[in-house]
Amino acid sequence: MQIECVRLLPDSDFSALEREWRTLEAAADGSIFQSWTWIGCRLRSRFTDPFLVRATAGGEVVGLALFNRRGPKLRRTLWLHETGRPAEDSVFIEHNGPLLARGSQALLAPMLEAALQHGRLSLSGVSDAVRDAAMAVGSCRVKATRPAPYAALEGVTAESWLAQLGASTRYQLRRSRRRYEADGPLVVQRAACVAEGQAFLTELASLHQVRWTARNAPGAFAEPAFTAFHRALIDRGLPRGEVDLIRVSVPTLHGSRVIGLLYNLRWQDRIYAYQGGFDYAAGSPHEKPGLTCHHAAIEGAIASRMARYDFLAGEARYKTNLGNGDVPLHWLELRQARMRWDISRRTPGWLRSWRRPAPVTSSSTRQ
């Protein structure tokens, strides 16, 4: 096994790296956030000093991690699959970590250790396994830990999934669905092409911003870099079936009414509920647009035989109400461990024999 660190130029031809990354994806159990669709999105403009860590075994690539380096040499930080610039990193990466071939978890520590020789590491949204590997190779500070709730869908039907929820949640979902379907059943429309996906995102962003500005908060789409990234991600991911934009509406006496839109990401057998925009203004108190849209999306995920509907990191009541499990995600800073001076091996014998008098300590101050 060999691990190499390669500094890339921002204006490099990344087509070879893309082929290498896509090949490893097929042999890995990663997340959408470790895919080339996500990491390669606007790479040339976002990553100002890209730095690649590559692990090979038997001539095949079995591990890849892309960092962006920032800061002066003595305080340089390498950001795993992020840029280190707050505006660009507003896209908020999760389920992050080096991309590893199946059965190669033992490479986590060596790859982090190799990167650590070039500066401190910032590791956002990583698993327990990455945290444990980081703690094994350096001085690791856990800046934050957030639960990522999910709904396990393997082997369930829409009815059996609903039956396992709490009584109050089931009641709210059914009551909301009845209210919305007074004049006809829900209409769930998925963006069929890039142009439609971009139109859906515009509509979603408008609803999202109305909701958050009413709370005197900026909202996710207030940051231009956030919007630019996801416009590009739709261009890249929707034709590959990795981006799923859903528009939920209901018929009315005078046409139809939009309940809300979901911007979900699809990877292997999982769906990641990334962002949403819902119409809270038009409904009655018993109409729950967010819950109803997620309910419809989960029913679609079950029909597509997806194994998990992931609500991503953060504590929110709807996530725990609709979910039946969670995993912790960690935000870490990793530095090289401070070297300890072994006086018994590194100090001349004459100095080892000299000892300063021990300080006098009051028994009341001893721990």
Q: What would your notes on this structure say?
A:
The protein has two domains: 2-147 and 328-335, Aminopeptidase, CATH 3.40.630; 154-306, Gcn5-related N-acetyltransferase (GNAT) (Aminopeptidase, 3-Layer(aba) Sandwich). With 367 residues, the protein is of the alpha+beta class. Strand 11 (270-278), helix 10 (289-303) and strand 12 (308-310) form a beta-alpha-beta unit. The longest helix is centred in the middle third of the chain and has 20 residues, at 194-213. The protein is 33% helix and 28% strand.
* Count of helix runs: 13
DSSP helix fraction: 25-40%
The residue ranges in which pLDDT falls below 50 over 5 or more consecutive positions are: 340-347, 349-367
The CATH architecture classification of the largest domain is 3-Layer(aba) Sandwich
Distance between the termini: 47 Å
Largest sheet: 13 strands, mixed
Q: How would you state the average pLDDT, rounded?
A: 91
Determine Rg (CA atoms, Å): 25 Å
- How many beta-strand runs? 13
List the domain count as a whole number.
2
Query: CATH class of the largest domain, anyone?
Result: Alpha Beta
Structural class: alpha+beta
CATH topology of the largest domain: Aminopeptidase
Q: Characterize the overall form.
A: elongated
